[in-house]
Design goal:
Layout: H1 3-16, H2 24-38, H3 46-55, H4 60-65, H5 71-85, H6 90-101, H7 114-125, H8 129-143, H9 167-173, H10 185-224
Helix pairs in contact: 1-3, 2-3, 2-7, 3-6, 3-7, 5-6, 6-7, 7-10, 8-10
Length: about 230
């Protein structure tokens, strides 16, 4: 891939990015991690890989506007159309399309090519560790979701099995489980290096959130003489 083609794809990507949790810097991190992973693999088509990394989140705007849409499905179609309209071969555009279709975990569309597997792993890696925590907090703020839910007994929920979205719910549902099922050994190794950081942060945040509810409620009852037997 030459500089002219790279800049064409990069500029199109930048024009599509509006979500600060999935911004161009996220795309660059995914690309750079993908190149790091690719060094441990054989027969990687870098023209396909680089294009797929640059364009993998161009459907985010549509999904944000309509949550029923899948950004991977929307983005893969946009990428295919953009590439073919700019003179790229249909076979090449189809390979890039598959990578983007398969980068989001869904059993109905698993990555088949080595380039798709690398993109999947690189994108998943950016949801691990401190970066994954930071990006999730940014996104929860954008959509107006809380840090945690409070249970009927007045305690702070850990997020496990919560029906309502929150940061703690997202951690238990996704972030805590992001360290398994990588396609490449290199990505799995990089993820393991980040795992304890995220776990420690969650545990500290949960303790800081739940302690006031444990201690403060009983103190409030004592001061205000609430009848807790009623």
């Amino acid at each position: 891939m030459n500089k002219e083609i790279y800049c064409l794809l990069e500029n199109y990507m930048i024009s599509c990015m509006e979500d600060s949790a999935h911004d161009k810097e996220h795309v660059y991190r995914v690309l750079y991690n993908a190149l790091k992973i690719a060094k441990t693999q054989e027969r990687v088509d870098y023209d396909v890989l680089i294009a797929a990394c640059l364009l993998h989140d161009i459907g985010r705007k549509e999904q944000f506007q309509d949550p029923a849409l899948c950004h991977a499905a929307v983005g893969s179609g946009k990428a295919y159309q953009f590439l073919t309209e700019h003179g790229f071969a249909a076979d090449y555009a189809e390979k890039v399309k598959h990578c983007i279709q398969a980068h989001r975990y869904r059993k109905s569309c698993l990555p088949q090519s080595i380039e798709a597997k690398i993109l999947f792993d690189a994108d998943k890696l950016d949801a691990a560790g401190a970066m994954g925590i930071a990006r999730t907090l940014i996104y929860k703020g954008i959509v107006g979701e809380p840090l945690y839910s409070v249970l009927p007994d007045g305690s702070v929920s850990t997020g496990e099995n919560d029906p309502d979205p929150s940061f703690f719910q997202e951690y238990k549902y996704k972030l805590e489980n992001v360290y398994t099922n990588f396609y490449t050994d290199r990505a799995a190794e990089l993820a393991r290096q980040r795992q304890h950081i995220a776990a420690d942060f969650y545990q500290c945040l949960y303790e800081e959130a739940s302690a006031p509810y444990r201690d403060g409620k009983s103190e409030l009852n004592r001061i205000c003489n609430f009848d807790t037997s009623a």
